[in-house]
Amino acid sequence: MSERVLRFEQALEVVMEHAREASVMRTVETVALLDSVGRVLAEPVRADRDQPPFDRSTRDGYAVRAQDAGGTLRLAGSVRAGERWEKNLEVGEAVEIMTGAPVPAGANAVVMVEHTALENGTVRVSEGRDVRVGQNIVRRGAEVLADVVLLRVGTVIGAAEIAVAASCGCAELPVFGKPAVAIVATGDELVELDAPVGDVQIRNSNSYALAAMVRAEGGEAVRLAVARDTREDVRTRIAEGSKADLLVLSGGVSMGKYDLVEEVLAERGAEFFFTGALIQPGKPVVFGRLPRDGGWRYFFGLPGNPVSTQVTFGLFVAPMLRALAGREEIAPRFVEARLADDVKGGTKVTRFLPAELAGDWEEVTVRVVGWQGSGDVGANARGNSYVVLPAEIEMFRAGETVRVFPR
Ligand code: AMP
Ligand code: MG
């Protein structure tokens, strides 16, 4: 098998190209509004009426005709939210109005109560306060007209989207079914959580970390039994895992004698898009697809070191999974922050070091967490992000702006 090791940007672009094209048969289910949180919208939500549905006052005050506001105005009535003032506002009149109430016909401005004086049934606008047409009024339909799409297919539902759906009267929403992601950890040294752990054995933490990341990205995690480092076992698990919508393996992709994953995938007719990326941690990461039912199923072989597993999932698997879940936004998001301390560079690879991103009011800083390398799950958990250090730069100085990949 020939090696194909890409720079980070290239590897990401390859994944993104495939993710954009990845089309799966998606099922749709209808769920109660609050059960849609975190799910992906399968049909657009349209405004069921103009928003606002009437000319709405944004202040407590007086509805007036702007052209009359220089003089004394006769207080003709009052209107509160949820009511309508049925008459027409006539020349020289003012109507007391509350925030959220419909502006009476004939009025074209609302003056804040703080800018007026009321005396013996007459209202006066305070000296020096201009009254403009349209002031403190949101016109009917100014936010959105009836039938216009407010939430697009592929939107992930959160509180803001729930507010929109509720404002349109949706008690239920149609969402996409979750893609099934098979998780296969490989390694002779691995033991499951319910088994006693020998001195030189390692608990299978990756299957759980991966399952958690799969859930967070809108997938259904299917944790398969650990594959031992034998051809036969790896074959069995890969056969089982390739029934899912996406197959994610951990371990067994390095250059060791017992690293059999790529070999077994190749046996099954896999097409490999890359077999490594110039990143650290995570260099041995593999991306490709297996033939299935006349089509293809994508797979990722992630390095087994737990921090490498998590970093490569976040960078490469997550975009593909978001695409399979039907999400519209799939690319990994990076932010910028100031480096808190000097960090030595000069490597040939792009590094993703566990780091703590702290944003106070003044500025956002990022500090690398001390760690013992890509097996150090504790250091990884002490951070909340990865600082991205490009290859070939000798030194990164405190105060420099760097990219950060939040996790
Ligand atoms: P590998 O990628 O198979 O060479 O494994 C690299 C390192 O990651 C070794 O120290 C493994 O023991 C460790 N490792 C592999 N798989 C897991 C796993 N599922 N959970 C925790 N550690 C793992
Ligand atoms: Mg291994």
Which key phrases capture this entry?
binds magnesium ion; 30 strands; 407 residues; binds adenosine monophosphate; alpha/beta; six-stranded mixed beta sheet
Q: Summary?
A:
The protein is of the alpha/beta class.
Question: What do these coordinates show?
Answer:
By secondary structure, this protein is of the alpha/beta class. Helix content is 19%, strand content 31%. The strands form 9 sheets. Strands 8-5-7-6-10-9 form a 6-stranded mixed sheet, with no helix packed on it. Strands 17-14-18-23-22-19 form a 6-stranded mixed sheet, with helices on both faces. β22 and β23 form a beta hairpin. It is elongated. Adenosine monophosphate binds next to α3.
Please specify the SSE layout and strand pairing.
Layout (H helix, E strand, L loop, with lengths): L4 E2 L1 H14 L6 E5 L12 E2 L9 E2 L3 E4 L8 E7 L13 E5 L11 E4 L3 E4 L2 E4 L11 E2 L10 E3 L7 H9 L4 E5 L3 E6 L4 E2 L10 E2 L2 H11 L3 E4 L7 H11 L4 E5 L10 H7 L3 E4 L1 E2 L1 E2 L5 E7 L2 E8 L3 H19 L10 E5 L3 E2 L5 E10 L4 E5 L8 H6 L2 E5 L5 E2 L4 E6 L1
Parallel strand pairs: 1-20, 6-7, 14-17, 14-18, 15-16, 18-23, 21-26, 24-27
Antiparallel strand pairs: 2-13, 3-12, 4-11, 5-7, 5-8, 6-10, 9-10, 19-22, 22-23, 24-30, 25-29, 26-27, 26-28, 28-30
The chain binds adenosine monophosphate and magnesium ion.
The site of magnesium ion (MG) has 5 residues, from loops.
